[in-house]
Design brief:
71 residues, mainly alpha, 4 helices, 75% helix
């Protein structure tokens, strides 16, 4: 679902992108790239507050994914 959502977002199909990315989240994907893609899709759909929350989730997960000593 993540890849389908990313492709839809690249093709400017924001509604499909959100649907696929939300499905990826429901199936348990919870890493920085999902939250970044969700933030982009939400921002494009005019949902700025939701996008900001996803961007904060992205930053937190990205920091947690960084190798030890790299931040």
């Amino acid at each position: 679902h993540y890849q389908l959502g990313s492709l839809a977002l690249a093709g400017e199909d924001v509604a499909s992108a959100l649907r696929e990315l939300e499905a990826a989240a429901r199936k348990g994907l919870d890493d920085s790239r999902l939250h970044y893609a969700m933030a982009r899709a939400l921002r494009r759909s005019g949902r700025a507050e939701d996008a900001a929350r996803q961007m904060e989730d992205f930053r937190q997960r990205k920091q947690a994914e960084a190798p030890v000593g790299v931040q």
